[in-house]
């Protein structure tokens, strides 16, 4: 861990304020109320891992709260996963009350008010992920935030094991390795979310199918934009590229290939019309998003077995 913050050497009268600032630095701004009358003790180790922040916390009983005032004054768009490694916790968010025991996961959203109550000395491991990195639909995230998940439930066991090992001692590694580890955490979390939303049966499947149809329609409406890529498609639908690719795993085609296929189809249709000789091949290619004429000719021949000019002469579109 890169940073260790502890109340050990802080005067008793200043411990609570110090601890509140420590948690706000490592996690997000919040209030802290201690339980009990004796001196308070707390320790937090925190470090960055790619686009994640991972923290290990050990402390005396307390209640932490993120209020609307905190959200207004210090917006923080994160999804947080906590692994309860000792003691118990109660998470309250969106009207849900979720109790977590040792080994359980809690998931919450820092853009909405929440509280975490620890009634006894505890330790927890928290991973904070930017929402843009998670890239899951809001309706899916809402099904898991404000909840506790038992480590005995399906995919959660693997995620708990991985997060506990990772947050106990963040490895010293290169930025590229750290980025891959962070992506691995996000992938594991996304898989857990999908596992739990699939439990909704046809409702979840229908939502995914609807999203795929929206994405296909978006691609068709923007074929002429040479900047149309999986990255821009994902951004337009507020999901990650990783999640976009996962959506299309059952479609039998990648998003990049679909964009090229639809562009080629429209070019072939236009070049095969009776009045096609009045248009230049490069103008048609550019109209449908191909910025490089030589590249267009290569991929057209690969798809249709003829060059664009041969296609025009043959009037071949069917």
From TrEMBL:
<dbReference type="InterPro" id="IPR009057">
    <property type="entry name" value="Homeodomain-like_sf"/>
</dbReference>
<keyword id="KW-0805">Transcription regulation</keyword>
<dbReference type="Pfam" id="PF12833">
    <property type="entry name" value="HTH_18"/>
</dbReference>
<dbReference type="GO" id="GO:0003700">
    <property type="term" value="F:DNA-binding transcription factor activity"/>
</dbReference>
<keyword id="KW-0238">DNA-binding</keyword>
<feature type="domain" description="HTH araC/xylS-type">
    <location>
        <begin position="213"/>
        <end position="314"/>
    </location>
</feature>
<dbReference type="InterPro" id="IPR035418">
    <property type="entry name" value="AraC-bd_2"/>
</dbReference>
<dbReference type="GO" id="GO:0043565">
    <property type="term" value="F:sequence-specific DNA binding"/>
</dbReference>
<protein>
    <submittedName>
        <fullName>AraC family transcriptional regulator</fullName>
    </submittedName>
</protein>
<dbReference type="InterPro" id="IPR018060">
    <property type="entry name" value="HTH_AraC"/>
</dbReference>
<dbReference type="InterPro" id="IPR020449">
    <property type="entry name" value="Tscrpt_reg_AraC-type_HTH"/>
</dbReference>
<dbReference type="Pfam" id="PF14525">
    <property type="entry name" value="AraC_binding_2"/>
</dbReference>
<keyword id="KW-0804">Transcription</keyword>
<dbReference type="InterPro" id="IPR050204">
    <property type="entry name" value="AraC_XylS_family_regulators"/>
</dbReference>
């Amino acid at each position: 861990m890169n940073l260790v913050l502890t109340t050990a050497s802080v005067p008793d009268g200043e411990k609570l304020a110090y601890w509140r600032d420590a948690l706000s630095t490592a996690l997000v701004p919040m209030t802290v109320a201690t339980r009990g009358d004796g001196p308070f003790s707390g320790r937090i180790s925190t470090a960055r891992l790619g686009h994640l922040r991972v923290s290990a916390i050990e402390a005396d009983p307390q209640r932490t709260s993120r209020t609307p005032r905190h959200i207004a004054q210090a917006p923080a768009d994160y999804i947080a996963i906590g692994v309860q490694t000792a003691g118990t916790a109660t998470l309250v968010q969106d009207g849900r009350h979720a109790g977590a025991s040792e080994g359980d996961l809690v998931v919450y959203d820092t853009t909405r008010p929440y509280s975490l109550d620890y009634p006894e000395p505890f330790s927890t491991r928290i991973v904070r992920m930017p929402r843009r990195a998670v890239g899951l639909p809001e309706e899916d995230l809402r099904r898991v935030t404000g909840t506790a998940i038992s480590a005995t439930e399906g995919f959660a066991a693997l995620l708990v094991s991985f997060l506990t090992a990772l947050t106990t001692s963040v490895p010293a590694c290169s930025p590229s390795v750290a980025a891959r580890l962070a992506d691995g955490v996000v992938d594991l979390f996304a898989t857990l979310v999908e596992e739990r939303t699939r439990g909704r049966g046809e409702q979840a499947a229908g939502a995914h199918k609807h999203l795929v149809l929206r994405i296909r329609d978006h691609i068709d409406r923007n074929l002429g934009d040479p900047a149309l890529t999986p990255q821009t498609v994902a951004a337009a639908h507020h999901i990650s590229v990783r999640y976009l690719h996962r959506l299309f795993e059952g479609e039998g085609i990648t998003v990049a290939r679909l964009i090229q296929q639809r562009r080629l189809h429209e070019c072939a249709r236009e070049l095969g019309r009776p009045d096609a000789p009045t248009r230049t091949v490069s103008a048609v290619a550019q109209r449908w998003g191909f910025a490089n004429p030589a590249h267009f000719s290569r991929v057209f021949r690969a798809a249709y077995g003829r060059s664009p000019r041969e296609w025009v002469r043959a009037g071949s579109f069917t």
